[in-house]
């Protein structure tokens, strides 16, 4: 158990005990609460969930609650009374209900900023989301394929070629960080990008830590590295603004330029500097961490799945044959990689990078005959539908053919990218990044797992055993 977690629980217990008891009693006067127990004050069921995630039994932990209480139950997580909702109907309720606000852990808000898209609602959320959609619209994504390809090829030349073993997860994290920082900021290789990458490695360490600023904790280190990264991002924002004013940069040169160029009808800038910096910080995390996990687990799957590997290699060889020697990949080429993306979706179903998320009820609301009191958290998890055998038969079996048809599962069942008005704006970007990387990786290398144990932990993101070391063979060097 993380020492900071224990210390934090002790530190806050006395201050919130009365609040929790009060919250627990009042709703009985409003309606029928879901079955379940809030458990011990402050602690609730938090430690049990964290232990299950670390032991990779979180899906079983959720299913045990469903078996005991049904698809709707109450509990206490991270110091707040919570309602767990499971199933496609529950997911739809969470994604499309305007009275449920995003509820990020306090640690996330302190590290990534208070004005990020993760916490905004209403017109503020619409403004920021609109800016991101402008940056990630299809016409813009077409322009990014070449930049992604350049980073991928350089990465494989420098970090894979000529090596007998590599450790996949940290390499994927660095690749996806390099790609997103280039597209966000136009930040080329060099000392600034290296320093920002080093900061973000530690920023991520504390996103789900207990937000108590004590020496030698992951949270303290994350706060320090976040402050350092924000100074860099602020500097880039101001430099980009100056370039735009001098006509030395364009709207399409990166997300920062795109955000700075957004104005209202009167010509006033839509976003403040703080909003731009917060948006960039969240985009850096979302744009590289989840993609790196997807790529890592896809590589792990292919090492022990020769049929899928052969089908995927064939698909990419056919794409390569349709092009001239040395021709760059295009958006149209990516559209031909259908089997690869189906395999990636199946990885996202089985190992979603984000286990679940929280909302907060802004007023008393009802679902399935139960009241969810104002101020309570709502917790949903991808595993509740992803691993439901009634929705996805034999859910533990890797089967990309599940995604041959768009309507293969009920709406709001496959929720790796969320859903509703807050569905991930970077879905198509993640697809492009994954397909370009797999195209060059599959055509250049073969690999084997160094460790045959097929295990991983969630901390809170899924991490394979020893970060997935593999034995590598360069196809060009093979007889």
TrEMBL record:
<keyword id="KW-0503">Monooxygenase</keyword>
<dbReference type="InterPro" id="IPR001128">
    <property type="entry name" value="Cyt_P450"/>
</dbReference>
<dbReference type="GO" id="GO:0020037">
    <property type="term" value="F:heme binding"/>
</dbReference>
<dbReference type="GO" id="GO:0016125">
    <property type="term" value="P:sterol metabolic process"/>
</dbReference>
<dbReference type="InterPro" id="IPR017972">
    <property type="entry name" value="Cyt_P450_CS"/>
</dbReference>
<dbReference type="GO" id="GO:0004497">
    <property type="term" value="F:monooxygenase activity"/>
</dbReference>
<dbReference type="InterPro" id="IPR036396">
    <property type="entry name" value="Cyt_P450_sf"/>
</dbReference>
<dbReference type="InterPro" id="IPR002401">
    <property type="entry name" value="Cyt_P450_E_grp-I"/>
</dbReference>
<keyword id="KW-0560">Oxidoreductase</keyword>
<dbReference type="Pfam" id="PF00067">
    <property type="entry name" value="p450"/>
</dbReference>
<comment type="similarity">
    <text>Belongs to the cytochrome P450 family.</text>
</comment>
<dbReference type="GO" id="GO:0016705">
    <property type="term" value="F:oxidoreductase activity, acting on paired donors, with incorporation or reduction of molecular oxygen"/>
</dbReference>
<protein>
    <recommendedName>
        <fullName>Cytochrome P450 716B1-like</fullName>
    </recommendedName>
</protein>
<dbReference type="GO" id="GO:0005506">
    <property type="term" value="F:iron ion binding"/>
</dbReference>
<keyword id="KW-0349">Heme</keyword>
<feature type="binding site" description="axial binding residue">
    <location>
        <position position="424"/>
    </location>
    <ligand>
        <name>heme</name>
    </ligand>
</feature>
<keyword id="KW-0479">Metal-binding</keyword>
<keyword id="KW-0408">Iron</keyword>
């Amino acid at each position: 158990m993380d020492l900071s977690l224990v210390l934090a629980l002790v530190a806050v217990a006395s201050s919130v005990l009365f609040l929790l008891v009060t919250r627990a009693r009042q709703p009985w006067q409003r309606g029928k609460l879901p079955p379940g127990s809030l458990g011990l004050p402050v602690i609730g069921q938090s430690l049990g969930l964290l232990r299950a995630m670390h032991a990779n039994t979180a899906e079983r932990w959720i299913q045990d609650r469903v078996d005991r209480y049904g698809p709707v139950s109450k509990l206490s997580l991270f110091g707040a009374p919570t309602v767990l909702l499971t199933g496609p109907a529950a997911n739809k309720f969470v994604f499309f209900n305007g009275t449920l606000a995003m509820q990020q852990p306090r640690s996330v808000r302190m590290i990534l900023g208070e004005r990020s898209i993760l916490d905004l609602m209403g017109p503020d959320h619409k403004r920021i989301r609109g800016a991101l959609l402008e940056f990630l619209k299809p016409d813009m994504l077409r322009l990014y394929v070449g930049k992604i390809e350049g980073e991928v090829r350089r990465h494989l030349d420098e970090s894979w070629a000529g090596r007998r073993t590599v450790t996949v997860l940290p390499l994927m994290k660095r690749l996806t960080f390099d790609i997103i920082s280039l597209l966000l900021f136009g930040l080329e290789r060099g000392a600034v990008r290296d320093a920002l990458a080093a900061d973000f490695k530690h920023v991520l360490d504390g996103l789900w830590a207990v937000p108590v600023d004590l020496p030698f904790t992951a949270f303290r280190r994350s706060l320090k590295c976040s402050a350092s990264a924000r100074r860099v991002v602020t500097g880039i924002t101001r430099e980009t603004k100056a370039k735009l004013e001098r006509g030395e940069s364009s709207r399409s040169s990166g997300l920062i330029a795109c955000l700075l160029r957004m104005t209202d009808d009167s010509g006033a800038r839509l976003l403040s500097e703080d909003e731009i910096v917060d948006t960039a910080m969240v985009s850096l995390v979302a744009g590289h961490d989840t993609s790196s996990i997807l790529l890592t687990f896809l590589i792990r799957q292919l090492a022990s799945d020769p049929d899928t590997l052969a089908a995927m290699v064939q698909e990419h060889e056919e794409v390569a044959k349709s092009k001239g020697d040395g021709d760059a990949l295009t958006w149209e080429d990516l559209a031909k990689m259908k089997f690869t993306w189906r395999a990636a979706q199946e990885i996202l179903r089985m190992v979603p990078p984000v286990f679940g998320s929280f909302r907060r009820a802004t007023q008393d609301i009802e679902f399935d005959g139960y009241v969810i009191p104002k101020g309570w958290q709502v917790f949903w998890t991808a595993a509740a539908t992803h691993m439901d055998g009634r929705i996805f038969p034999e859910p533990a079996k890797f089967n990309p053919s599940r995604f041959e048809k768009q309507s293969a599962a009920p709406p709001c069942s496959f929720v790796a990218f969320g859903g509703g008005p807050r569905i991930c704006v970077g879905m198509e970007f993640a697809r492009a990044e994954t397909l370009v990387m797999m195209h060059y990786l599959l055509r250049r290398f073969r690999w084997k797992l160094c460790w045959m144990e097929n295990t991983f932990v969630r901390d809170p993101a899924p991490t394979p055993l020893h970060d997935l070391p593999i034995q590598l063979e360069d196809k060009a060097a093979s007889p």
